Amino acid sequence: MENRKLRAGMIGGGIGAFIGPVHRMALELDNRAELVGGAFSRDPEKSRASAARLYLDPQRVYHEYRVMAERESKLTGEQRLDFVVIVTPNSSHFEIARTFLENGFHVVCDKPVALTLKQTKILQKTAEDNNRLFMITHAYTGYPMVVQAKQMIKNGDLGDVLKVVVEYFQGWVPFRLHGEAKGDKAWKFDPKVTGSSLTVADIGTHAENLAHFITDLEIEELCAETTSFMAGEGLEDDAAVLIRYRGGAKGVLSVSQALTGEHNGLTIRVYGTRKSLIWRQEQPETLLVRDLNRFDTILYKGNKDLYEEADAAKRLPSGHPDGLIVAFANLYRSFFQAIWQQIRGEATIGRDFPSIDDGVRGMSFVEAVLDSAASERKWIKPAV
After folding, report:
1. What are the start-end ranges of the E strands in 161-237?
2. pLDDT attached to residue 77
3. Which of 66, 91, 97, 279 has the most C-beta neighbours closer than 10 Å?
4. Distance CA 88, CA 121 (A)
């Protein structure tokens, strides 16, 4: 039995950040964890100001993550952190994650977890060698109707999966370069910070992960084309990928951040021999199911005939949307359970959250897409 809240530390996510507050709300939603310290900015004053807004003990606030890892690792008992949350730019993920893993902390990290597959595999081994849990926040897998879609395919409701079509369309690049935010160029446009990939690493990994989570299909090989419509700096802002899955199913993955007017248009379609399904992130409460007779059934979160795994993922009754924060919180809930299992000396096999293994597969996907786009041979087998 849990007899206390788990203690969290955060790196990044200070004043003005977008994703840091989302993590903070999500990890505290179930009242099973609390933020107790962190290094919220490289600027000491900004880090202290951020901590003050969060009413944190000034003694647990740091200006540098290495200092934080060293000092926090020396604490014991009712003070020591149980895990850290990394919400910094891409280029810093690898070193920060490795530092905290080696100092004995469980890790939560935004994707991409590193800039290369080699780095991601190092983190995978470091987590394994230190017996630490590592969660990557592919939060879309926490939505109840995504879980329903997964269980339907797992149960064979769709028959054999024939084709998977997933698209993720955003319009933030033209907004940054030509819209109201013109001149406010994000760090993501700098390859030194974001890495060799912009859009495939940023949202393509989400699209690939969602397809894998729902269908459990593994990519055999892929053929890709990438384009830089506006991003420049050698970074793509659009990609189209043809996929051959092991077992014979086919896939189409299309992602773009250069489509003017788009918000956060993540959509997945899965077609089986008996039924098909469609889920849209901007309408997350419903799952559209179609049968051989072209009869449409709309499943709603809260329906009595949903699989119990989907029902367990909901936080509010039907008609009251579970937002992205709740999807994040569902991942944290599973992560916390695994931490407590480890604290009690129990096995954590089969843990139900995106792990470093998903990060390895995601970065393998990114590198295969970039290799295919640059190659005349086109069809590329992912390394993992």
Report:
1. 161-169, 219-227
2. 83
3. 97
4. 20
Q: Which tens digit of pLDDT belongs to each residue from 281-334?
A: 999 999 999 999 999 999 999 888 899 999 999 887 777 677 888 999 999 999
User: Helix axis angle, 117-129 relative to 90-102, nearest 10°?
Assistant: 20
Q: State the first-to-last Cα distance of the chain, in angstroms, to the nearest integer.
A: 38
Helices 205-215, 144-154: axis angle to 10 degrees equals 50
Q: Cβ distance 2 to 29 under 8 Å? A: no
Q: Does the residue 383 lie in any domain?
A: no
Tell me, yes or no, whether 123 and 53 share the same domain.
yes
pLDDT tens for residues 217-268? 999 999 999 999 999 889 999 999 999 999 999 999 999 999 999 999 999 9
Q: The tokens of 305 are what?
A: 């005939």
Report how far residue 368's alpha carbon sits from residue 383's, in angstroms, rounded to the nearest whole number.
8
According to DSSP, residue 348 is labeled -
pLDDT, residue 341, reads 92
The domain containing residue 289 runs over which residues?
A: 142-315+361-374
Residue 347, domain member (yes or no): no
221 and 289, same domain (yes or no):
yes
99 and 150 part of one domain = no
C-alpha gyration radius of the chain: 21
Q: How many residues does the chain have?
A: 384
- Looking up residue 193, the CATH number of its domain turns out to be 3.30.360.10
β-pairing, 83-87 vs 238-245, is unpaired
**β-bridge partners, 169:** 256, 265
Q: Are residues 225 and 276 in the same domain?
A: yes
- d(CA 75, CA 82) in angstroms, rounded, equals 11
